[in-house]
Protein 1
Amino acid sequence: MKFASALSTVALLFVSKSIAMTWEEADAKAREWCADLTNEEKITLTTGRENMQGICVGSIDPIERKGFKGLCLQDGPAGVRFAEGSATSWQAAINTASTFDRDLYYKVGAAQGNEFYQRGINAALSPAMNIQRAPASGRIWESYGEDPFLAGQVGIQVIKGIQSQGVIATAKHFVGNDQENNRGASSSNIPEQALWEVYIDPFYRAINDGSVDSVMSSYNAINGTYSVQNKRLLTDVLKGKMGFQGFVMSDWWSIYDVEKSFGAGMDMDMPGGKYWGPDFVGDSFWGEHIQECIDKGIFSQERLDDAALRIVRSLIKAGQLEDYPEVNLTVDTLTKENIALNRKVAADSTVLLKNDNKVLPINKKVKKIAIIGKDAMPATFCTDMQCANGTLPLGWGSGTTDFKYVIDPLSAITKRAKKDKIKVVSYGEDDAKGGAAAAKDADLAIVFVQADSGEEYITVEGNKGDRLDLDLWHGGNELVDAVASVNKNTIVVIHAPGPVNVPFIDKVKGIVFAGFPGQETGNAIADVLFGDVNPSGHLPYTWAPREDYPTDVKYDDALPGGGEEKTQYDYDEGLFVGYRWFDKKEIEPTFAFGYGLSYTTFEFSDIVADMTEDGLYVTLTVKNTGDVAGAAVPMIFLSFPESVKDYPVRLFKGFDKIMLEAGQSEKTTILIDNHDLSYYDVDVKDFVKPEDGEYTVYAGSNARDLPLKVTVSAAVGDENEPNDSEDEEIPDVSGNDEDVKEVESDEEAGEASVEEEQKNDSADVEDEISADEEPKKDVASADTIKKVRKCIVKKN
């Protein structure tokens, strides 16, 4: 059998809903539209009115005189919330990031955007772009991992995809909402350089490269001042220095006043009520109190004019003031194309962590498989997924969806095994003794285990959003130990929001990390286990024991939101988040940032680096040295010149994804633009690109497997000098040499198996996306050089 291409594409059977409009064009039209607005109408635009008691989670009242229908705002990153099963329940954002595939990032955004558009939803409350600084943090599955460059790159394409459908994307949560405990009564105390380079940088990319229409502020304070009251960040930085032209909305019920919040630069109060509940519909901290403050001179008329203008400007840029669909959250968009795309991304995001003795993919020599654990069983549906019973497709909270169905692993594996005449037995509990008994006589035992996390307003099994620890839930470690003790061919499949403890790592043959794959989870896992898809997912974070990370969550007693007393989160690690910390302290992680195995092997060679006015071009050759087709992800890391002091050893700065047939080689060129060649100088108060010294460029498959190295002068035009990579002490933990899987070649089997498996739930379709809809890879060509944005460096 030939592998189904890891980069085979899924058609998008819809096109851009509006001709792209520049901010300048939108501004001119918005000023004309707003010219005759009364203050009462401007206040209507800024103040949520139904307090989440209406159809949408957030809404703005109509202005009938202007023919304005009002606004509907709706969660979220995994698809349309409260759609009663009529919309796709997508994979978690962290899974999307794990594909390291810009084409898929865009297609996910466009497909989701289309589902919001068809329902008349004006603003999708997505993407989430916070940083995974502590692995136990509850909402890490809603964002894109630990690295700001990666978070920015995913965000750019998801935003472009959403907005291609005429829907407003919302980059959130600005900024520092990186843990759940007392999020509404906490202060993220972030050093200035880290604030810019780590936490603001994804939003910088969302604004400058994604042209995002709206930004949502965070619950927490930053350095003592709540985000919604932080004039420096909202007005001086976001709207001033970063040039954001859209509007800033609050997170839900994060506003506790009018003077400080509206005066600081907040443009929209969501959902409008002072607190949750029907008693506060129409009872807002804003509303008529805005006019009272203007009358008292607390803030100017211009502040209200600007807020209204920003909202209308975004609506006009999105093409929403004419012919926008009426709000109907239950329009059926659960199409075979969306199902196929979810299944593909779920499979491509699956990370193969261990594969000793080529135990995977499952071959026809296997006659009996035992499926063990409750996580392999049908999911239990509960409000906002506030239960962990059965397989876990998503975490809990506002970032989840209403599922129409979830394909459970047992059903999918059983169905797929029949094709190869493999018998499947199962034990659907987490009891160690029962699991061992079921696995004892099987040729292969697959144990499904889980851990869960989510948003602060829900507590699940004692976990109030943030996880209490990194252990598997429901006795998962004991279950794996028991099965492995009786079956030498044990594979563990993990559903979890992020890293978990794996004390059994040396006792099992294989470990597959599925994350939170959404509704097609079972089919996607079966695709990978049986080799219908060659795994190509990579970790967007570092995986290690909890005590090895530089920081952690806290479990303080609950404090009143918006109060003066706050839980203090000191970001003392500064720039050294994730792999940067492990490099600095020379700690060997369990699995490195970017780690992910394949059923084939890859070789990287012939690295060349060229510094130009547009940035640094890195060219290398990637070869598939194995026997089957697969997708390689070459990653570029950069060391800055020695003049940049107290800086990370290496920074992730570029990647590509390349599908290669067995034996095939391909050259790729990756651009690192001038912004990513710069660091934030706290004295200059801006990003500065070093003019002297040398950058060292590393290339490889993950943060600890970088076999290629070359130095290049920071000065434009100087020749680069290749280095002997053997001198660099970076351990090779790729494991690829021991993880090649030989399979039979069959030209049509890959596509046929997908079509057979999915039937009405999925479809193999050709990629018909037009050139102007496709996302641009971070790959240089003669046509793109002149389009690269140049970094403007300010000096004293």
Protein 2
Amino acid sequence: MKKNTFLYTFLLLFPIIIIQSCSNKTDNIDIETAVPEGYGLIKVDLPEIVFQEENMGGDKNASTKSTAPTTNITVSDGFVCDVKLEPIGTARGLDLSAKSFDKKAATITEQVKKDVRYRLYIFDKTTGNIVDSAKYIRGKESTVAPLKIVGGKEYTIIAYSINSTTTDPAYLANKQNINSAEIINKDVDFMFYKQNITIPNRSTNTLKIKFRHTFSQITTTVKLDNATAAYSYIRNISSASFVKPSFTTTKFRVSDQTITGLEENPLGAPVIFPFIPLTNTSYKTITTTSPTIVNSPATGSNGKMIFEAMTIGGVTRGNIIVDNLKLTPGVKYNLILTFNVPETVELGDNPYFKYYDNSNTNGSTYFDHEVKLINPTYGAQLDIFYLDNSFQLFVNDKPVFSREINFEDYLGSDVIFSDGTWYGSPNSGTSVIYAINKDTPRQEVPIIRLVIDEKGQIVLLGRKSLNETLRILTFRNGVTYTPVQFNPNAENKIKFRSHNWNITDVWGRLYGIRLK
């Protein structure tokens, strides 16, 4: 049997296709019978997915920079964060020397999972018109009859998948011509392949497809530097952490493989870390449970990662932002955030308070708890372990909020989470505030935390349940707050107040934080 083998190898940024052309017999099939005069057959195999990994050689098109977060975390007396993008190959024992990478992105391949579903389309290279199409399942390609097309011509082959074993990828829209063809994707792991090939007359050709991802993939690690790890640990990273921009719907143009964001996810792509119970004091480093998939065109310098809350040791800060993320679609990244946080001690002679009243005085009486804090250089925090249902805070005799803020939906909650839910919001699965931590004995876990930083800026955080993390709460119903006059190097008076409405039941702790 005479065999000719055509090998097409292209740059790393493009897929690879191998064509085997047989002029007489292939796999014991009589070509004179199987392939009619003037035609060629196409079979398909899908062996691999190609990944590109970010190098550590300083690629200016894929870098990050940390900036001072909105909560005024400063270099001098706040969280300090070193930000690095590193190749995922570090976890695979690869040679990461400068010579090895030579300032180029590394490319690796992985096997496509069995039963992954994908579609293939064939276009006439000269006219751009569609010729044929088929749907395949990885490992079961032989069950699909070979495609029969006119031989002796050049074609453009495309294939794509959402890396799913249960869901077929969307149909190709405007498929009559490759120049108009496009794919509308939801937030999926979209993979694509495109290649121009010439199909010989009376040949049987096996296409070995290598997909490329069209989304960025980020594995994030938060860790403490050696100095901080000696005296502290990671207590909380909000489950409300995101990479922006990311789109719930994108349009992929087949002809030039450009991506257009159609519907932006208002929160961004979720960054999920393992949940850390409050009693766990062992975490010095923590990595996302799975990579964050960012379905977006190239983000340029506009990308950012947002942590709604982070607690290291006894100190919480909100809205921590790593910006200037320059992510390239199709590239996998390791984002390493190394924190340095000064050692601190807590202040306050009488931090705990607990109060219960069911006399229904209709707001004519109230409960107060005040502490005096001397030199709280790192600010102050209010932890509420149980609340029914409102409070006000005073700093140096001035109210923090425009009125006592209410957390109960029955009265119209004054606070709302970033996902649009609030305590007791209908059909949201978010419990009413007084049902959280109601079991006996109640746990000393803050369901509400109010943070005053050293500049007098305030962040309000809430927990939807004892098994969820703290996340940002913002105000609604006309409630406002003004940054307070807070002196980190002198005495400050901070007072908690809750008016008696029907049942008033509160338990918490009010304390200062000083740099050690």
Protein 3
Amino acid sequence: MAVLRLALAQYDFPVGAVAANTAKVRELMARAREGGASLAVFPELTISGYPPEDLLLRPSFLAACQEAIQAIATDTNGLAAIVGFPHSVGEVYNAAAFLRGGEIVQITHKQALPNYGVFDDKRYFRPGRTSAVAVVDGVRVGYLICEDVWQAEPAAAAAAAGAELIVVINASPWDDAKQAEREEVLVARAKETGCALVYLNLIGGQDEVVYDGGSLLVNGDGSIAARAPSFVDALLWADFDTTTRTLQALDWPSVPDTSHEATLYAALVRGIRDYIDKNGFGGVLLGLSGGIDSALTLALAVDALGPDRVTAVMMPMRYTSELSLEGARGQAERMGVEYHVISIEPVYEAFMGQLTPVFAGKKPDVTEENLQSRTRGVMLMALSNKHSRLLLATGNKSEMAVGYATLYGDMCGAYAPLKDVYKTEVYRLSRWRNLAEQRKQGAEAWVIPPAVIERPPSAELRDNQTDQDSLPPYDELDAILARFIEEEQSQAEIIAAGYDAATVHRVVRLVLVNEFKRRQAGPGPRATTRAFGRERRYPITSGWK
């Protein structure tokens, strides 16, 4: 029986950090060698980070990546390695280098270039033509790059070339449906080819996407041998048995809760932490309104960065309820963050004093409500500038979808953690976070004030206001939005599913007419299969209704 030991680097390799990524590869290769691995495997575009976007148009960047892969090759004595990098040979390829004996032995190019969703590979790369196979300790190892395994042909070609094991290096962003889809595809490839598969995925936050890791081992008969935890950095050890074509995970880390809520929460935390740290910000600031969205955002920020790097500001107005004031103060104190209360009343009145002569003859309307929100935005931005703390926007996907948000008001913020999280999901996450705290601290523990979770949601911009004055109930609204946005259903299809026709027409109209707002929103981590931004791109000006 021949056994091949692999070391799989489920780590973050940040975009553009060529020198740091190179150093990390070398350090991990040393650990792999010390641990007795024969093959170390690294994610897609390890050297450049993924996606490098228009950095790939810069010759100096491509040259630095080429120098890095050559330097890494010199460290491979006693170890083979597969490392992703951008390969520039007149044209640019998304490549994987097979390194051994101090040399670049072989280079293969990604064959299937995705150009859907968040992917834009065809803008930058030319497709490869062949599947590569290398021999490591007598084992024939095929290796593919990400999208290649989602098509049948590249894996079939590797198997036809004699591969016993197929290694797939990936930069596959997380969403709430992705892991099930990955497993279905990998099981199909294993059954088609008879090859065992190693699926190694990148981890970390990069602007509007988060990579979860979630690496997989699949036996030659299609059974799942092991699942790596999501959002856990680790060097994963595995043994491949050539006789049975089976894989064995060796002491892989685990997480206590693998529920949807736990994984989504971990994705949002990772998104915040990596966005703040990779961009060099000392901390964050947010408006804590006493509502559930800002309460969840505060919890996420503290879990991501620690309380010392988070500042919360309550900015009351005459319409702010005592429940909001108590909820915000209680949460800020419980979480140990810097907390300020700054009334917007005098600033708002000053604005109105200047504007009233020009408003003469017009009744109060949403203008005055929006002015309250914009007053808060001005003050938060001033605090952000003065204290060098990045402002987090607290709006959710339901609000962003229908435009229930104020430009240059509550939409102020350089990063929006809940941008792709529906309101109903905000409630589920908040309840889950409290339950997680109770498991650790006891039945009375909470992070998000229970009264804030149970109250009817309100923007508190006028007396006795609730969100449902302007919107359908969130259960109904989110169901319609998910059908229209994620599932791309027509209005007729949604109505046929049993939803009120007038409500459907109104919701769809709000989605379409508020594209201009979303174009001006801060980035936020992708959580669903159709996030606003680079994944869902609708024209602002359009006659299609």
Protein 4
Amino acid sequence: MAPTVNGAYRGRYAPGRTMFPMKAFNEAEATFAKSLTKMKQEAPDTPDLLYALEEGPEERSWALQLLSAIVESQPDIGRQLMPQVLAALEDDAASVQLAAIDVLAKLKATEHLPQILDFLADPNAQLRSASAECMGNMDAWHLAEELRPSLADSDGNVVKSALKAARSWGENGQMLASAVVRCLDHANAGARCEAVQVLTSCAEASERFAGKVAKLLANPDLQTREAAVAFFAALGPRGTRRALAETQKLLKDPIGQCAAAMALGHMKALNCAAEVASLLTPGQDSALALAATGLEPRLGVELRRPECAAAFALSLMGDEGGKYADSIASLLSDKQLPTEATASLIRSLASMGSYASGHKGKLLSFLEHPQSQLREAACWAFGAFGALLQEEGIDMLLALLNDSQATVRQRAAKALGHLQESSLYVDHLAVLLDDPVPAVQAQALESLASCGEEAESYAAIVCRMAVEHSREGHSGVRCSALKTLGNMRAADFAEEVAGCFEDSDPLVRAAAAEALAHFGAEGKEFLMQVELLRSDPHEAVRRAADECALALDA
């Protein structure tokens, strides 16, 4: 391969005749995505990358980015070029160094961690951030103390990356808990949210610092409040001892009352049910205006409207919350409520089970509502209510399988799968296997899996949906089909399922391993292929293959 007059190489990955340098790509109207697609389709040409790594900084950066994109599936190429990658860490251009760090992270080249640690104190904030994130990707929890100074960095993005690394370490991240807690007051909203998530992943530390997280329930930033609520959702009743008093006070705070009510629901704070129920009056949604202007992301309605937050919290409080089912039902008649608020109230009421049984008629009426969001919520309620609604509303639910809105069809299919006698509706679900929307097909497959022996007559169709390579880009459908075959114990299709081990999509390979684990003696014939899959470059695939091998051996 020889350079052209302008120094570009006649590589195979550019749409035109050249691969490098960067200006040749731009002249040919190329994009990184197009080059990457070609590189994945064809056998990568290592000399092309080597030539580029000796060119200018843009070319070197581009080559390393291409390498980073393929090393997870083709790690041998990365190892061949390891000397060049390590040399790039000493490059004068920060973009080249960043790309090299990314390659090492993808390769999980832990033997080169000392070089990565050097960047934690680099003057360039981007490099400090990349090295901190790389430590997370390499699971370098044993070097937690090296990361501690990054949690007090002057740059918010560096702090966020360090927190992400600590979060990825799970329980091991709690070694940095004292430094993480200080980040709860960080000026950067993203850093605050990451700090909450780190504490969420640390069982012991999360309970110890629940009181400090409770203060964030009234933070002016919506995403911070959302993260704090998620913290208490994970912690559950264990958060009561240290956070109850602070959270209870916030029910009177106009900013924090929604988040506080939801947190109390997750805590199962039954003695607070009456106080929470006092919020069951239509309130104002000030956050909606902020979302409309783009100043804040639009979060769930329960975090924005007091009546929705209260209904949600009460639905988690069992008998004490159930006493207020009538109050929630009365709000459904308020025509001034926004559609999303009414939908939220429908879901909360349905979650109260027998306490809401007196309002079956009202809930069923929403199955025929002109607003699709309310029809979808009514389908959700149908599935949650179980036997209390099935006999009366089944015809209306079946009619929604032909709804004009895909989300309604999807939710109706899910509700059918939750019925005690879902096997009676196998043929109705099978019709959705030809739905034009992949998400609806995937849900129909999932619901079929709960229909028992009656669904086995459709096993051949399900198998075809699993192995069809024409469904490129619809891996969700193929994965659902494979999982359904596994749940059906459709061992007659073991060979077809094992054939998916060579699929280019790691999600499909993992789903195939999960399915084969259910096939018993027929699955054992493919143990050799399963063993090969245990060395897959993707962790999810390896984990599924390990579980499959154990199940088949057992």
